[in-house]
Amino acid sequence: MSKQDYDVMNVEGGRPVKMWTRGVPVDEAAKQQLSSTAKMPFIYRHIAVMPDVHVGKGSTIGSVVPTLGAVIPAAVGVDIGCGMMAAKTTLTASDLPDNLGPLRSAIERAIPHGMSPKTRGFRGRDVGSWGVPPQPVDIGWAQLKDGFEAICQKTPKLKNTNNHRHLGTLGSGNHFIEVCLDEAGSVWFMLHSGSRGVGNAIGSYFIELAKQDMRTHFINLPDQDLAYLPEGTQHYDDYIEAVSWAQKFARTNREVMMQNLIAAVRSVIAKPFETHVEAVNCHHNYVQRERHFGEDVLVTRKGAVSARPGELGIIPGSMGAKSYIVRGKGNEESFHSCSHGAGRTMSRTEAKRRFTLDDQITATEGVECRKDVNVIDEIPMAYKDIDAVMHAQRDLVDVVHILKQVVCVKG
């Protein structure tokens, strides 16, 4: 680097926080949350902060937390392995039908999405899971089953999760499936999802376990969500095994969804086409062991993507905004990381209070998607400006493709 493209927030009694946030807003609550994390004694060197940073449950979204000798389960969170997958096809814009409604409907039929309301006495199947899982789901689950059974032998409480029926499903919230066009008019398929119910169960179990350990040993924390598991303990080993499996589930989940997405598009578009001309499958909520500054450390990325030299990643914009396929520059100061999206500027509740259905319809003009009151919280104006976010991390990644969605399926 010819110059320092990040700012440093010094934390009294803690490690520095290096922030790639120039030109984008950072709220004070996020800074306070980062400051609390930086004071933990096992933080390695510094915390790296991406331009999409905002307050999160458990840990700051858009942060990279390197640790020596401990892991913070709430920093990984409950959507373990959440991430993106994108695949370029040989289709072009002219191959898409003029009316994209049937294409969206075919995708919605092919992939369970959303969730049934958790009303009292509800006995039906969750619409976000499979009734009878199709063959690609069974094949994917066969590769995961033994690992899950090994985890359940140590943690029987996890056994009854809806994992098999959730494999190859989207979920809700900010998860989505899109058909996009790049700058040359090539068609891409892109989706965003994670480890679904089983990841939530694993994350929740170990977050509570870490909190119990802190109480047992009378360890005071600036925030109980910073409860940690020390390396060398059984709970640490069990968590690393379980979280690694959940990350594998999340990756497989996206692969199975992509298979069903491709099949759905082929049912509508008669022209033969190939996919995976260029393909990316990357986590942005996860932990793994990496080598940085000559040391083996655990790196937790909470809303951040690995950006090693030459590594491809995905930085999606909001519903109705541009997305980016990027190539990592391997910036060591960021622990080889970049942002995972645009980042929210307000809560979902605030977005629903501030914006109307007419605002949502205007903001998603030209995109075949849901346009109803239940997706107002995903309106583009509730997110940071993706162009400003990309400019702030120009020393972390190079842009390879710019994508604009034409079909969007939300959970």
How far from one another are the termini?
41 Å
The top-level CATH class is: Alpha Beta
3D shape: globular
Number of domains: 1
CATH architecture: Alpha-Beta Complex
Q: Helix share of residues? A: 25-40%
- What average pLDDT do the residues reach? 94
Number of helices: 10
Task: Output the helix-strand order.
Answer: EEHEEEHEHHHEEHEHEEEEEEEHHHE
The fraction of residues in strands falls at: 15-25%
- Give the CATH topology: tRNA-splicing ligase RtcB
- Give the number of DSSP strands: 17
Q: What strand line-up does the widest sheet have?
A: 10-6-8-7-17-15-14
What does this molecule look like?
The chain is an alpha+beta fold and 411 residues long. It has a single domain, classed as tRNA-splicing ligase RtcB. Helix content is 31%, strand content 24%. The chain is built from ten helices and 17 strands. The protein has helices at 28-38, 73-76, 101-110, 135-154, 163-166, 196-216, 234-268, 348-354, 357-363, 386-392, and strands at 7-9, 17-19, 47-54, 61-67, 70-71, 83-92, 176-181, 186-193, 229-230, 279-283, 285-292, 295-302, 304-306, 312-315, 323-328, 337-339, 397-410. Strand 7 and strand 8 (186-193) form a beta hairpin. The longest helix has 35 residues, at 234-268. The two termini are 41 Å apart. Its EC number is 6.5.1.8. Its cofactor is Mn(2+). This is 3'-phosphate/5'-hydroxy nucleic acid ligase.
